[in-house]
Protein: Dipeptide epimerase
Organism: Rhizobium altiplani
Amino acid sequence: MPRSLEIQTDSFPIAGTFTISRGAKTSADVILCIIRKNGFAGRGECVPYRRYGETMESVAAQIEAAKPLIEAGLTRKELQRAMPPGAARNVVDCALWDLEAKSSGETVIMALGLAQPQPLTTAFTISLGEPDVMAAQARANADRALLKVKVGTGDDESRIRAVREAAPNAAIILDANEGWPDETLEHHLRIAAEMGVALVEQPLPAGKDEFLAEIRRPVLVCADESVHHTGDLASLRDRYDAINIKLDKTGGLTEALVMKKEAQRLDFKIMVGCMVGTSLAMAPAVLLAQDAEFVDLDGPLLLARDREPGLRYTASLVFPPEPTLWG
């Protein structure tokens, strides 16, 4: 019996507004891919990202163009050559993983050799705003173990200090989303070190980050927009200490696993992150993140509603997915 492919779109309202240096959003617009065969159905979810030239329409069109190959039995290995990295390949790749698990009776956890995957401490995002507003957000979440704080203006010192004062015991990741100018970079890194920040994510624009190789970095610096797939890694060794692996960038779990292994070989620390999506998008990433140094998989916590069933979150922990959700 041949496969069938179904593409759906959905929009999940964000609880409040999610603001970074590039702007704000009030909903997570996602694409769901369902691949069926022999009575089994595999699902995946992706989040098209305008920063990478993606729209809901363009990603849906990419999937539609690959539909004949997918329905004809395209394997995950063949998919890596048939589609480029990005959200479209991610949603198909994750749906294929799920279909393989459902039809074989062997979960993705088993296929990856994860006998007992563990709950992980995930970051919780504090949106960019005025220092007093960010401090209030941090204070309301000060009992969380890890906060990811959105920054990315010409002067973020007051924001960093305000958040640290409001959450004195939390580990902190600063995410500048390419927003710090060269002339303030060293100052902000010094403040981050003074405030005990654990990691600074993508301070400079992708493609214009050579300055990171010329300065002393008193805090670990992580590539996000600068790194998409395995081929990007070698050129970043002089300027970054860590990389953020996101399935919507790598084009799925298959490539993400390869990328993670190579990054570890090159002595990068690993962060596993996400776009703002539902538990279905997070589920494969939870398995990828099992031995990562930093985990940022709070997408569902930022939404007013999630898919049912969703991932289990308790305080700062996110638990591995149940097969009824994915895998």
Notes: The CA atoms of residues 7 and 33 lie 5 Å apart. The chain has two domains: 4-107, 120-318.
